[in-house]
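seq/struct pair 1
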Amino acid sequence: MEQQNHQADTTQFSGKRHPLKTFSLGIQHVLAMYAGAVLVPLIVGGALDFTTEQLTYLISIDLLACGVATLLQVWGNRFFGIGLPVMLGCAFQAVSPMIAIGLKDGVSAIYGAIIASGIFVVLFSGIFGKLIKLFPPVVTGSVVTIIGVTLIPVALNDLGGGQGAEDFGSPLNLCLGFGVLIFIILMNRFATGFLRSISVLIGLIAGTVAAAIFGHVDLGPLKEAGWFHAVKPFNFGTPTFHASSILTMILVAIVSVAESTGVFMALGKIVDKDISSKDLARGYRAEGLAIVLGGIFNSFPYTTYSQNVGLVQMSRVKTRDVIVVAGGLLIVIGFVPKIAALTQLVPTSVLGGAMVALFGMVVSSGIRMLGGQVDLNRFENLFVIACSVGMGLGVSVVPDLFKAIPEDLRILVDNGIVAGSVTAIVLNLMFNGFKGGASSAEKGEAAPNEHAA
């Protein structure tokens, strides 16, 4: 016990570092995750036809909630919080499900499902070790791959200027979209360290500047936005609860928790702290609380961001004070709509170019989990992957396939992610039991989540 307390001290607040340096390190963490944090509300709000005012609020409250979620996790008390230098942001896995739920059952159903999934995580945080067995790498990798692939069409539609846009596929939109994508590729090829970690953010800024030169930037949202706004729960209406939507978000939450386990383990090694099952339970509980808060204040589900773990390792600054500063900065930014409105200046085609890389990374994350942690020489594992990904993509591409089935029976088949996930779970139990078909190199750790920026 004393040894664990001593190890935990390695993540405590430091009083030796100059405040200005701590502040600059906090800004660096904010910049590393900022693009991913604002992209989710931009994508979801755009797909659901939010007004400029609604989108500004969505971005602001999302940044504020990211800060609150981070502080909940960093706090690390006896009830919740992993107590490690970890930052939380929007779960990219939730983008496609939230859009699908919003288009089918309305925005209120999104937040009802988010709240329900957060409560699920909180209630089952203590026994999640057993539930996680249903999501070994062969299942989680398949689900993440499905999620990424279903997002790619969204990115390409935006790259062309937005589905239904009058100038869809115009030379200017294509040049801006592919120009941003090429810029991000070159940044990741030739830049190193911090510049590489914010390549998406730099690409969005460069693309927006280029678009402004051609008169393709609308300054209206920035002019209309105020300098301060009050936070209001249920701003978009009272949440509604639908079985199929709740099941979808619970599956997304379980995948996020499974991936967060890998981030916790990686951070534990970096700061020389042994992570116990009780530590993990507190971490899961904090993540569940963050998800519930996201639903109440009309933001999003939250999960750990692995790029910030990379910053901890790169900077060799392992104390929590830097993350506390970053979380505080996000909260301050969230109260200032003017700052949130800046992100709305980004043209749809520029955003789409960045999204191709971002969503492609979600796909590659799933493939990496399958290739690095699953024994692909076993036919059983290949069969699980083939059928689950095939079912997930099939339902996504042909959504009317099960239209004739009664609505109550369509819960497990009317969404590609749910259909693919259920298929993967059932087939994995059938062929592998609770072993999960892991490779010999697998040591029980889920792969860290890959996020934007």
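seq/struct pair 2
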Amino acid sequence: MTAKTVIDVWVADLTFPGYMDRLHRLGAEFEKAHPEYEINIEGRDFRLLSQQIAEAADAGRPPAVAEYYFAVTQAARDSRTREGKPLFTSVQKAIAGRTEILGEPVVLDDLIPSVREYYSVDGDLASMPAVVTAMLIYGNKTALDKAGITSLPTTWAEIEAACEAVAALEGGPSHGVTWANHGLFFQQALAVQGGELADNANGRASRATRLDLSSEAMLTWAEWWRELHRKGHYLYTGKIPDWEGNIKAFADQDVAIRVTSSNDLNYMAMAAENAGFEMSVGRFPQRDGVSYGGNIIAGTSLWLADGLDEVTQDGALAFMQFLNNPRNAADRHVASSFVPVTRSSYRLLEDEGWFEANPYHSLASAQLGSYDEGQGEGVPPCRGALFGDFAGAQDVMTRAMDDVLSRDDLPAERFAEATAEAQALLDAYEKDRVDNGVRRPESLRVEYFRDAEAYTGAQLEDAVKGASKE
């Protein structure tokens, strides 16, 4: 009997109930269709996954397929084997123009353009998108209606007006709005203003060499956020980022509006249902007087190890296509409210009546661009920043904002300090890359969570289960 070819796949265990079970089922389905392969899926602690991949590479045993968060894309591109060769190869180059691999249709041309663009450099798709999310605004429609706010805010000024109306509501929520103190919100706030974190077109035209955390766009956002907090409208739990406390505030009706990821859609709906109020959902609001600049994406992608033999590489590539075939990508959206990553998966859900029955689920997709000609909101895709030690820069932003909110530091002064801190991290990363190659685990420094506490599906579910009807 011929031995099976083993494909090691390391993914981030996002801890959402049933998340890993579903991936293992898909692995088994692929094996049934391709009995010559064994798919070995390992769910790793998502806070440590990047470091564990680096350690495996340093030991000469990297997985064939490795999952990285969007924010560590540059570090994944820079990663090297112990021999100093690139750890990963381009998915697009490995596919080499084929339309199917082992009978699995190639999905590259079916990917949402904005998502494909994020993981591409000079038109070359480096990795296969897996989990995709966008930013949304959620409202307690019941409370907002009572306050005379009949539609969700679409601008920052409208958020403040809604907060003032909620504050005047007798027996209403104690605060108007909340969101987590996390790097995603800084990135999105810059995106809608057309701002950037790094030079050289956000690290897209060439390697980023300078960071700016005190740009006009960043300070406008931080100062507006500070004023909302000083006026008692914005609820700050005092923790970084405190996703659990943040969603609990919405579930307990302590706030009327929450801004967060489309990833939370199912949990937010659960919170509203448990507490007995109606929920509304909309696009991330824009800065007044500034054209809507675009929307960042968050999530993960799958990277293909370089140097694999042809049989192993084709098996890994075929499995990537299988994960994103229309049925599987559509089911991933239904189960976890992740954005459907391909046009075909979106159309499948549309044909099955999913969006008609669950209209809020189409909003994140509309923000990220067209699935068919004439669809989408016409908002240009925002190419997120690419630079080393992105996680460290996010920590610098959130610590600076914590000082602004908790100690009332002036944003201009505190974020000028933050720029120097973040620049020092980038400079250290680039020096180590040049001197040693991004290889050694102790130098990789790409953990998605360092200062921040974990963000787990189990925590979110527990937070909304306690919501009570009032």
